[in-house]
Amino acid sequence: MLKLDQELKNNEYPGRGIVIGRSPDGKYAVMAYFIMGRSTNSRNRIFAEEGEGIRTQAFDPSKLEDPSLVIYAPVRVLGSRTIVTNGDQTDTVYEGLTEGLSFEQALRSREFEPDAPNYTPRISGLMHIEDGKYDFAMSILKSNGGDPSCCNRYTFAYDNPIAGEGRFLHTYMHDGNPLPSFEGEPKKVAIEGDLDSFAHMLWENLNQDNKVSLFVRFIEIATGKYETRILNKNIS
């Protein structure tokens, strides 16, 4: 397993990232989502609670440029399922599940972001906790090596996740121009510590210049009760 602190510390710009796994004591389903930014528009954001989920908001509304790819609900909850994504496909998954579609089926209507030349991948996760059981899935929709004429779709499903283990999926391999899309399976990473220490570790190891916001949630598998931490660079 990889160490998350090293994965983050040694990557100046992983972009947006999702971590899903299980706490070391096995009691909690763990989810984290972070956003980073290089442009003024991307950096001018915060996470704000909205119902059981969160929404991105402009920190300074007067500086908001194009909201289409930066303002969305990264996290929404539908009964026993928690959805996390890096764009408005959160709503696509939510509506699809409501209509009886699977996670993978719901995302068939979407593809990578239309932000040439990067064609940022759409990354998504779905946690399912019910009757003391827990499983999760992750998805990435990406261009074919930078060619927007073809969308490559990958879904990864994990049944009964192991304690202290998680998967890490992020949008970019590293900084660059254009930004290179993530490659391979979601990385197997160690989930260490409790809610606060885990959130602190993630936040401290994200690049100081580029990090914007972080969301972390621990859900008790036996009861479905959860606790959340939100950290925003624009709010001290």
Find the CATH superfamily: Inosine monophosphate cyclohydrolase-like
Structural class comes to mainly beta
At the first level of CATH, the class is Alpha Beta
The radius of gyration computed from the alpha-carbon positions, rounded to a whole number of angstroms, is 16 Å
By DSSP (H or I, 4+ residues per run), the number of helices equals 5
Shape: globular
Low confidence ranges: none
Calculate the terminal CA-CA distance, rounded to whole Å: 33 Å
User: Proportion of β residues?
Assistant: 35-45%
The total beta strand count reads 13
Strand order of the largest sheet: 11-10-1-2-12-13
CATH architecture: 4-Layer Sandwich
Mean pLDDT: 97
CATH topology: Glutamine Phosphoribosylpyrophosphate, subunit 1, domain 1
The main β sheet shows up as: 6 strands, antiparallel
Tell me about this structure.
By secondary structure, the chain is mainly beta. The chain has one domain (4-231): Glutamine Phosphoribosylpyrophosphate, subunit 1, domain 1, CATH 3.60.20. 15% of the residues lie in helices and 41% in strands. The chain is built from 5 helices and 13 strands. A 6-stranded antiparallel β-sheet has the order 11-10-1-2-12-13, with helices on one face. The longest helix is centred in the last third of the chain and has 11 residues, at 195-205. The N and C termini lie far apart (33 Å). 43% of the residues are buried.
